[in-house]
């Protein structure tokens, strides 16, 4: 029997993990598999091993593992596969197929535009955007993030969409924000490319409040992406397509 195991990042902020669980519960209604479980890579429970165990206990012999993450970086390429190796050792007869994150999907740009509009942005406005990512040491993830910024600029037709990162990449959020306090644009929209609320959002809000005291522009912090209804469609695509992907681990236990 087939199962889908959704893997979120996890956060120390309870509201963040609860948001992911609620999102997956909403998504399950549109995804055609009887066994669906949610787990987390770190900081929240259940972990990946427990999530897989729940699938097996419900009768699964094949699991599609779907990372509920934005871009393909270290967690996708290294951390989750390491945990799945442990799962395979515990359940050698289990077939595991591994899916893709949200990635460069057009619906991601749709959601970003909606977050701008909900904060008051209008097309043709004298405005700039600072797109803020979590950050990564993975060059491909950073390249994908810059591609998202480029697509957003094409969609909005603003003069500038700059990027900044909260960790592991340059420019840092502090550097990007300091630069935007000198902008000549009437408005600057700080747009977090994050799935859930957490300490990072709280820190950004505090820093933007301070920056507004010295900024030549009006700085607006937009909402994080959240688990938007449009993203359910992306998640559904990822779940269905994963069962058509090559096996990560077959029943023989060999990597493919």
From TrEMBL:
Keywords: Lyase, Metal-binding. The keyword Lyase applies. One of its GO terms (molecular function) is lyase activity. It holds the Pfam family CbiX. This is Sirohydrochlorin chelatase. It comes from Salibacterium salarium.
